[in-house]
Amino acid sequence: MGKFILKRILLSIVILFCVMLIIYTLMHSLPTNYIDTMAQQLAQRPGSNKSAAEWLADLNAKYGMDKGILGGFFTWLKSAVVGDFGESWVHNVPPTEKFADVIGISFILGAVSMFFEIIIAIPLGILAAKRQYGAVDYTVTVVALVGISMPTFFVATLLKLIFGVKLGWFEITGLTSARYYDTLTRFGQIMNQAWHLVLPAITIIVISIGGLMRYTRTNMLEVLNADYIRTARAKGLPEKKVINYHAFRNTLIPVVTILGGSLPSLFSGALITEQLFSIPGIGYTAYQSMIVGDIPFTMFYLSFMAILTLLGNLIMDVLYAVVDPRVRLS
Amino acid sequence: MSIFKKKDNKGVGYISAKTSRKISKFNRKVTKKLEREREDAGKDPELYTTTMKDPNNVVEFDNVCTYFFTDIGTVRAVDGVSFDVPKCSTVGIVGESGCGKSVTSLSLMQLLQRPSGQTVGGEIRFNVGDGKALNIVKTPTAKMQQIRGNRISMIFQEPMTSLNPVFRIGQQVNEVLELHHPEMTPEEVKARTLEMLELVGIANKEGVYNMYPHELSGGMRQRVMIAIALACTPELIIADEPTTALDVTIQAQILDLLRELKDKINSSIMLITHDLGVVANMADYVVVMYAGRVIEKGTAEDIFHNPCHPYTIGLMKSKPVVGKQVEELYNIPGSVPNPVNMPNYCYFKDRCEMQCDKCKGQYPPEIRISDTHIVSCYRFMEQGEVVGYPKSTNVEEL
What we know:
The structure holds 2 protein chains of 2 kinds.
Chain A (H helix, E strand, L loop, with lengths): L1 H27 L5 H11 L7 H12 L4 H13 L14 H36 L4 H15 L2 H15 L19 H39 L2 H8 L4 H23 L9 H6 L5 H11 L2 H29 L1 H4 L2
Chain B lengths: L16 H25 L7 E2 L6 E14 L2 E14 L3 E5 L6 H9 L7 E13 L2 E4 L5 H7 L4 E4 L3 H4 L6 H12 L5 H14 L5 H5 L8 H13 L5 E5 L7 H18 L2 E6 L2 H7 L2 E6 L2 E7 H6 L4 H8 L48 E3 L5 E2 L9 E4 L10
Parallel strand pairs in B: 4-9, 4-10, 7-8, 8-9
Antiparallel strand pairs in B: 1-6, 2-3, 2-5, 5-6, 10-11, 11-13, 12-13, 12-14
């Protein structure tokens, strides 16, 4: 097992290097160039004694953009491996500092959504499998598929319209109520933030629940047709125990595996949802940095995402061995 | 432009969309009604308690009809099957694949794939002692769960997949004991499990107790399955082709083990197999099935020394005999009729080499030709007494 993990980690490093190189190349070739924009602005400022071209050359030298793609990449990589990601051009602080500021809210949003996703989707999937081709199965499946098929922005807008505008239960954007947030007690402030997170969380749950539910259903159906389930029934076990114990433990193998794999995604934020609801999380911040071409922050964020994805795959493989005794030995 | 050519769909097995809808609608109606009846039957024990015809039998099958309501029509997998399993004896059920052997045993356990598979007619009487019997066909699931694994247990064909891969062997044997003997302490349960593992010939019982199924060979797993089946000393063990997936040496060991254990705990065995050698070796009584019906039954002696039905004769001819040289093994010509559209004459007539004029008439009755020997063939109409006709259940009337 140790050897296997080591092998996977070494392979991950190679993949990570390639991913970073590709991202850097793309960022470098973006049509939106932060430095260009800066140079234009500085040149037009009253009292500027340099032309835009001169400013551009200056800034390029200052930001290390004059070394070409490969040169720039290796300069960035050299400092990145020791934990120095430079300074975010937009936020004027190191990306790690900005990241620490905004990750909390994204993590909470992700964790809450994932929790509800699990406790809704898995029981629904099992229920649908138990009543295969029954009314319950069809209803659950249709609802789940509608959830999967709707784009995030549509669900978000719909929720905003119904619960924000028509019913007036929630505010439609932001994390805090700007008018009276400061007058609240500490507890009141937390509740106020939680209240603002309800609609984004529902949006994420609605669009992600279908996949997990279908996955659980398919696996449960496969398990329910297995010979050992017939054995369990032949032992005289009550149906409840057959499903909730014998079948469920086996269904859990693939489900735990993919859930474990998606654990790191708790830290990646929900880029679109945070954007739609103006929640200042990591997804929102990363998007804002990306559209103005803030290379240090974007590089940091995307490398972080790549590491999370690779970590997720590794966790998935390890978890598989944990839940399935058959893979434990080899 | 072949893709625009209208395909000729009206071949064998073709069902128009309209018929298909009609069949599904009918199936839903019937299965729903049967499921509801089963639920209702559970409320009144009178409805499923009955008496044995002969108290020396463990199980009596009386004109059992088990049908599958499929999308292409009603499949009469078991259609009017009658036979008895006497106490402390081994009954071998023989027949080719798909003749209804397994479905008969699954009906006895109520383990059919519901709702499409239903026992729609007849009685399966299970002796519960004191002159009382349960009609398994009508017994509610909750009551059935006290019988399964406890008084009737089953050994399956596929030891490789019949044990749950995520639980330890000990746990899986314990489970059946804990379920049916809640009064036992955990220590007693463990002691009993180890005893059972030893009984089925597992040398390293402590080690195996803590192993997972994938760490054992097929033969070992089948031994564990037998340990599970015998743990509660059942009155009847159904062995559904217990040795089909095992190699020949292990096969002999498993069969010896079964025979030995059966005498030790005084149970009966219903041995389902298509291997005539196994039956000759093990069985006291033999039931030969063909296309969902019993065509011949009797003691092993009757069947092996005096086979009467042309199908049984064909079976005997088609098995290789040691010391006898033949150019080519005999095989019975033709194939089994379509289970959805069974003919109304003898099911074997189209393949039979001994048919006579009478065979064109209705399905032959069961004819008793000796005290123990019953055969369904018109050739014996004059030589024996007619016991009765197997009756199908009319699904339209359900």
